[in-house]
Structures are given as structure tokens and as C-alpha cells.
Design goal:
The structure is a single chain. The chain starts with 7 loop residues before the first helix and ends with a helix. Helix content is about 40%, strand content about 10%. The chain is globular, with a radius of gyration of 18 Å. A hairpin with a 4-residue loop joins β4 (about 180) and β5. Strands 2-1-3-5-4 form a 5-stranded antiparallel beta sheet, covered by helices on one side. The protein has 2 domains: about 10-100, Ribosomal protein S4/S9, N-terminal domain (Ribosomal Protein S4 Delta 41, Chain A, domain 1); about 105-190, Structural Genomics Hypothetical 15.5 Kd Protein In mrcA-pckA Intergenic Region, Chain A. By secondary structure, it is an alpha+beta fold. It has 9 helices and 5 strands, in the order αααααααβββαββα.
């Protein structure tokens, strides 16, 4: 399964803001974004701050699309398919696109607090630690719908990682209200499809729509 395997902190520096791709590390002093003071990557990154270039409409649209891809860990071809699906549905294309991305299994695992980052959630799903409606699933891009239940497999609950997760206690306060978490059972239920107001990802989805509508 294709995925980005390069240095993720480089992606944050390219976008000029923290995308929180490494979970708690992004909040610590060890964050490379802080060490490099947000300079863009590359040999001439430090000089970029002195260049005053006027951003074109295309540049802003491209950067917003790239930022969305990187936040959710989706490559270009798959992201384009998500946009195509959102465009076929009735409603606001940009909002539907974000709902589709939020409904991915790896994002639900991350939002529920089973992982510190979407990359870690993706790895946990790929290793077969979760079930959807009682069926083992190892596909991170699996779309989870309303009333679906995502749970840690019985065998996986015996591993050190999930034992520590239960022992340390899961923070129900960070779980969005479109999900319902049962920390004791390591189970999360999708109460409803998320609305735009319930998605806290800092994205301007209209710019993404404009990019693909050129």
C-alpha cells in the first residue's frame, strides 16, 4: 500500500505551519519545526524568508490541497478519488470531501485517542489490531459510517501497548462529539457523520475545490 515514507517534519516546514504529524512530539521542544524556526526545507530555505513574492491564486489553492493531503496522510491519486466522490454527491463539495477524509478508519482510530497521530493509527490498523462491526479490518482507508463500531481486537488487548492505554486512561475530552468512546471496552461508536463545525482541521476547503475546478 503506497504511503509517504520521508521525513514528515519537512512537510510542516514546507507548508509553513505545524501539521501535528508526530503527535505529542510536535508539542515538545524537540520539534524540528521549532528548531528550524519554520524555515522551508532545502538548501535555500533560510533565504526564503527574505523573498517577498506575491502568492498567486493557484499557489494558495495548491498549498491548501497539499496541506490537506499531508494532514490525512493521503497520496495524490487517492485524494483525487476522494474529491471525485465528493463532487458526485449532492451538497457542498468541500465539506463532503472533509467528511470523507474524517470517516477513514485510521482517522477514527486517531480521533478516538487510540493513537497519538494519524500515522500511528494507520500502522495499528494495518497490523490488524481493530475490528469494524466485529470484523477484523486492516485497511486504513476503510470508510466508517454512522452506527458502525470500531473496537480493539480481543487478542490485541493483551499487548503492552493497549494495556498501558487502559492503565493510563484515555482522555474522553479530546474525542469529538460525533464519536462515542467506551474506554473500558476499548470501543468507539460512530454516532453520526461529522459536520463541518465538528471538524477542527484548519483547512479552507473552498480553495481545494477551486484547485480541482480549474
Amino acid at each position: 500500500m503506497a504511503r509517504y515514507t520521508g521525513p514528515v517534519c519537512r512537510l510542516c516546514r514546507r507548508e509553513g505551519e505545524k501539521l501535528f504529524l508526530k503527535g505529542e512530539r510536535c508539542l515538545s521542544a524537540k520539534c524540528p519545526f521549532e528548531k528550524e524556526r519554520g524555515y522551508p526545507p532545502g538548501d535555500h530555505g533560510r533565504m526564503a524568508q527574505f523573498r517577498r513574492r506575491r502568492s498567486s491564486d493557484y499557489s494558495r489553492q495548491l498549498r491548501e490541497k497539499q496541506k490537506a493531503r499531508r494532514i490525512y496522510g493521503v497520496l495524490e491519486r487517492q485524494f483525487r478519488r476522494y474529491f471525485g466522490e465528493a463532487d458526485r454527491r449532492s451538497g457542498m463539495t468541500g465539506e463532503i470531501l472533509l467528511v470523507l477524509l474524517e470517516s477513514r478508519l485510521d482517522n477514527v482510530v486517531y480521533r478516538a485517542g487510540f493513537a497519538d497521530s494519524r500515522a500511528q493509527a494507520r500502522q495499528l490498523v494495518q497490523h490488524g489490531h481493530f475490528t469494524v462491526n466485529g470484523r477484523r479490518t486492516n485497511i486504513p482507508s476503510c470508510i466508517v459510517n454512522s452506527d458502525d463500531s470500531v473496537a480493539v481486537r480481543e487478542e490485541s488487548r493483551k499487548t503492552t501497548y493497549f494495556k498501558n492505554l487502559v492503565q493510563d486512561g484515555m482522555d474522553e475530552g479530546r474525542v469529538p462529539n460525533w464519536l462515542s468512546l467506551d474506554p473500558g471496552s476499548l470501543l468507539v461508536r460512530v454516532v453520526m457523520s461529522p459536520t463541518r463545525d465538528q471538524i477542527d482541521t484548519a483547512l479552507d476547503e473552498q480553495l481545494i475545490v477551486e484547485y480541482y475546478s480549474r
